């Protein structure tokens, strides 16, 4: 892994005729890479809008599960989880034409307005229409998310120069990491002073902020690269053709599904802490905090270090490292060891996310949209299916479950890396662009 130009300096020896380049990675440097991007009005507008939206989503996720349990019991929680994921699976499988019709920032702004109304109305639906009415709203909101998420992922790289795609991917990942940490705590504080329904209204408000940001970017017009100009009128290509043409990409997406499925074993972490370490809720909270801290600390590196050119192979290897961390957790004999391994596990996550998004961003816009939609379908399917049985099986022998899941992920990740190397294109692929590798550049839309 090499470093971008701003992670080096030239040192000249007095009286000598030569200079040497010294590599360094100071802590503030990786943050400055993000600060430089945020000087672009387009990137700043999008990031603020999406950061608030993701934060609202964390409030919504907690509130909808709690109200489902409170009103209809644990069974309703499972139905809500399925209703949220099913639209991604359906549209990703047979709805490519529908997804392709929302390929503009203005269209996504309209989708966010609809989502704002849906989440704000959810408590009323549960009160007056019961479980069936609430599930219907959750399902519709899921379909809105299923057209929004891949289109936003496909449009975001167009706001920056190609060399900045990796950095903007890391920046968007950072907002999600922060929301995962701050969301539950903020929800707890808010619930101490206001009713549960307020969380839904706040989430609706964040969707409106996101809609305003997207509408503003849409009005600016040429804030995206010229190669996107005709994209909204094009229907995303068939996934089968794309994946046959790039088998290394197919491997990476498949490994993503395996990784998500394997990591559902983490739901058995409370049982592991209780049975193997004799800990309690405090230890569980500390492990979650350590995982979040590791992810935050590594995000700046993932977004700004120059990653290897074969991103699918690197991606598969990163999942193998994540699997090794799961195996090590199974062998952890103390709380400090668990916390250290949790930091490592969290640190891998940004590299996984940024590497895949950066790789997919190199495809032409219509192909990029289709591949991102397929990826969402794969991980939603894998996550939903594994949630049905993995936690229940792992609860009785959690250490064995962590070991099996980890070893399986290590094996699949290494095998995937070998395939990605073997099936990598021999030369430049027509229509595909080399994108951000951590080097600096000027963002568009100033």
From TrEMBL:
Q: Which InterPro entries match?
A: MFS_trans_sf (IPR036259), TM_effector (IPR010290)
Predominant location: membrane
Q: Classify the protein's membrane topology as the record does.
A: Multi-pass membrane protein
- Enumerate the Pfam families for this protein: MFS_3
> Could you state one GO cellular component term attached to this entry?
plasma membrane
Compartments annotated for it: namely: Cell membrane
- Source organism superkingdom: Bacteria
Give the residue range of the signal peptide. Answer: none
Q: Which residues cross the membrane?
A: 47-69, 75-95, 199-218, 250-275, 281-301, 313-332, 338-360, 372-394, 400-421
Q: Which residues form a coiled coil?
A: none
Metal-binding listed as a keyword: no
Question: Which UniProt keywords are present, listed alphabetically?
Answer: Cell membrane, Membrane, Transmembrane, Transmembrane helix, Transport
The name this protein carries in UniProt is MFS transporter
Question: What is the organism of origin for this protein?
Answer: Streptomyces ficellus
Taxon lineage: Bacteria, Bacillati, Actinomycetota, Actinomycetes, Kitasatosporales
């Amino acid at each position: 892994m090499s470093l971008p130009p701003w992670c080096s300096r030239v040192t000249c020896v007095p009286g000598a005729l030569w200079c040497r380049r010294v590599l360094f990675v100071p802590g503030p440097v990786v943050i400055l890479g993000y600060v430089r991007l945020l000087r672009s009005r387009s990137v700043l507008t999008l990031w603020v809008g999406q950061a608030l939206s993701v934060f609202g989503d964390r409030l919504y996720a907690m509130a909808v599960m709690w109200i489902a349990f409170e009103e209809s019991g644990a069974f309703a929680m499972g139905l809500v989880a399925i209703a949220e994921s099913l639209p991604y699976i359906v549209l990703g499988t047979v709805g490519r034409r529908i997804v392709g019709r929302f390929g503009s920032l203005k269209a996504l702004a309209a989708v966010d307005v609809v989502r704002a109304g849906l989440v704000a109305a959810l408590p009323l639906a549960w009160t007056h229409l019961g479980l069936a009415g609430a599930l219907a709203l959750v399902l519709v909101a899921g379909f809105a998310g299923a057209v929004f998420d891949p289109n936003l992922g496909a449009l975001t790289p167009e706001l920056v120069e190609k060399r900045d795609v990796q950095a903007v991917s890391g920046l968007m990942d950072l907002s999600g990491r922060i929301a995962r940490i701050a969301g539950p705590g903020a929800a707890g504080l808010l619930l101490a002073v206001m009713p549960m329904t307020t969380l839904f209204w706040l989430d609706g408000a964040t969707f409106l902020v996101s809609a305003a940001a997207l509408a503003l970017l849409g009005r600016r017009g040429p804030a995206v690269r010229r190669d996107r100009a005709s994209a909204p009128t094009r229907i995303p290509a068939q996934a089968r053709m794309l994946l046959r043409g790039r088998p290394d990409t197919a491997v990476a997406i498949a490994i993503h599904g395996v990784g998500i499925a394997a990591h559902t074993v983490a739901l058995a972490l409370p049982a592991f802490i209780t049975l193997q370490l004799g800990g309690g809720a405090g230890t569980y909270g500390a492990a979650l905090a350590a995982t979040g801290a590791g992810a935050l600390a590594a995000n700046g590196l993932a977004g700004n270090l120059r990653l290897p050119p074969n991103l699918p192979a690197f991606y598969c290897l990163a999942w193998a490292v994540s699997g090794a961390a799961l195996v090590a957790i199974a062998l952890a004999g103390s709380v400090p060891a668990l916390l250290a391994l949790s930091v490592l596990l969290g640190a891998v996550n940004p590299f996984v996310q940024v590497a895949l998004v950066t790789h997919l961003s190199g495809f032409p816009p219509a192909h990029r949209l289709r591949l991102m939609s397929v990826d969402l379908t794969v991980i939603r399917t894998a996550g939903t299916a594994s949630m049905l049985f993995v936690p229940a099986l792992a609860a009785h022998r959690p250490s064995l479950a962590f070991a099996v899941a980890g070893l399986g992920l290590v094996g699949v990740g290494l095998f995937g890396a070998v395939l990605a190397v073997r099936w990598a294109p021999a030369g430049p692929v027509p229509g595909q662009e080399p994108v951000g590798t951590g080097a600096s550049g000027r963002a568009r839309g100033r």
